[in-house]
Amino acid sequence: MNILGIETSCDETSAAIVQDGTHLLAQVTASQIDLHARFGGVVPEVASRQHVVDITRVVEQVFRDANMTWSNIDAIAVTCGPGLLGSLLVGVSAAKGYALATGKPLVGVHHIAGHVAAAMLTLDGGTGATPPFLCLVVSGGHTELLSVDAKFRFTRLGGTRDDAAGEAYDKVARLLGLAYPGGPKVDDLAHRGRPDAFAFPRALLEDDSFDFSFSGLKSAVNNEIVKRKNRGQAVLVEDVCASFQAAVVEVLVEKTKRAAVHTGARTIVVAGGVAANRGLREAMSQLAKELSISAMFPPIELCTDNAAMIAAAAYPRAKQGRWSPLSLNAYAQLPL
Ligand code: KG4
Ligand code: ZN
């Protein structure tokens, strides 16, 4: 079964064709990073307008790259939430238009289900993750610990009570004067600094909680920077990044460990933009070793937003013929 996926929930206009939920045949993504960088973050109105400019050419290009036509497509999958409403509406409207014009069935996909499904995709014929597994989703908008069953259904164990992990990365990057999106830059600098230079707080919350909180950490980093500047001391950017990353990773690993023990999971999957972080990948692999279970990650290029993950997430539903109606809407907030 070949599914055309469309993703426009934030600042990437992406289309992909995925075979049987696991094999990526082609993907085209128009990134808006340069467009938003000068504002220090995504400007929703600018994002939706650019999606309108890009969507048709991105879809047409993915057909050319896959050397396919509509006759090769069995279903159309599209992110219907959560995300920026204007951005989501462009993808949903395009998908509905294509579905109406071609008679192909439609599947509305939850963006987080997409991030989880990214770990089930392979780029080189290898094997991706197969549910059931425990999944930590860490992106710019979300930090969620999910138990995923064999039928790709989710039970939410916990999530952030304030900032998402990626949001904390981006905010700290901004405090340090690094360009948007700051996560990858903080990751690079962290590898050149001392993780024990500053004792930033680790919010572990109650003993039995699978929730997260990163706003205190962000404030602690801010206070340290302000204190040093007021004293005329240099801010050692590499050390701040390394110490911040150590605090984030320690909390993410500790909560995942608790959840793995609690659920008896045999596999831990880490997904979302922050799953591209090298420090987090290393620490999660170490945790899996300690628990004698396996740790799996999506291919790096499928960690951040993309349409392949949306097509992959739609596959279990498409196999059962559980289609969305043409009245499908876009939702800025959408429960899993
Ligand atoms: O999943 P994603 O593309 O968008 C959302 O759905 O939010 O994630 C983007 C987030 C940004 O906050 C970005 O800074 C962060 O992922 N990110 C990273 C790394 N690469 C991307 N954070 C830490 N280390 C990285 N290497
Ligand atoms: Zn995302």
From TrEMBL:
<feature type="domain" description="Gcp-like">
    <location>
        <begin position="24"/>
        <end position="311"/>
    </location>
</feature>
<feature type="binding site">
    <location>
        <begin position="137"/>
        <end position="141"/>
    </location>
    <ligand>
        <name>substrate</name>
    </ligand>
</feature>
<keyword id="KW-0012">Acyltransferase</keyword>
<comment type="function">
    <text>Required for the formation of a threonylcarbamoyl group on adenosine at position 37 (t(6)A37) in tRNAs that read codons beginning with adenine. Is involved in the transfer of the threonylcarbamoyl moiety of threonylcarbamoyl-AMP (TC-AMP) to the N6 group of A37, together with TsaE and TsaB. TsaD likely plays a direct catalytic role in this reaction.</text>
</comment>
<feature type="binding site">
    <location>
        <position position="305"/>
    </location>
    <ligand>
        <name>Fe cation</name>
    </ligand>
</feature>
<dbReference type="InterPro" id="IPR017861">
    <property type="entry name" value="KAE1/TsaD"/>
</dbReference>
<comment type="similarity">
    <text>Belongs to the KAE1 / TsaD family.</text>
</comment>
<keyword id="KW-0479">Metal-binding</keyword>
<dbReference type="GO" id="GO:0005506">
    <property type="term" value="F:iron ion binding"/>
</dbReference>
<feature type="binding site">
    <location>
        <position position="115"/>
    </location>
    <ligand>
        <name>Fe cation</name>
    </ligand>
</feature>
<dbReference type="GO" id="GO:0002949">
    <property type="term" value="P:tRNA threonylcarbamoyladenosine modification"/>
</dbReference>
<keyword id="KW-0963">Cytoplasm</keyword>
<feature type="binding site">
    <location>
        <position position="111"/>
    </location>
    <ligand>
        <name>Fe cation</name>
    </ligand>
</feature>
<feature type="binding site">
    <location>
        <position position="277"/>
    </location>
    <ligand>
        <name>substrate</name>
    </ligand>
</feature>
<dbReference type="InterPro" id="IPR043129">
    <property type="entry name" value="ATPase_NBD"/>
</dbReference>
<dbReference type="InterPro" id="IPR022450">
    <property type="entry name" value="TsaD"/>
</dbReference>
<keyword id="KW-0808">Transferase</keyword>
<dbReference type="GO" id="GO:0061711">
    <property type="term" value="F:tRNA N(6)-L-threonylcarbamoyladenine synthase activity"/>
</dbReference>
<dbReference type="InterPro" id="IPR000905">
    <property type="entry name" value="Gcp-like_dom"/>
</dbReference>
<keyword id="KW-0819">tRNA processing</keyword>
<feature type="binding site">
    <location>
        <position position="170"/>
    </location>
    <ligand>
        <name>substrate</name>
    </ligand>
</feature>
<dbReference type="Pfam" id="PF00814">
    <property type="entry name" value="TsaD"/>
</dbReference>
<feature type="binding site">
    <location>
        <position position="187"/>
    </location>
    <ligand>
        <name>substrate</name>
    </ligand>
</feature>
<feature type="binding site">
    <location>
        <position position="183"/>
    </location>
    <ligand>
        <name>substrate</name>
    </ligand>
</feature>
<keyword id="KW-0408">Iron</keyword>
<dbReference type="GO" id="GO:0005737">
    <property type="term" value="C:cytoplasm"/>
</dbReference>
<protein>
    <recommendedName>
        <fullName>tRNA N6-adenosine threonylcarbamoyltransferase</fullName>
        <ecNumber>2.3.1.234</ecNumber>
    </recommendedName>
</protein>
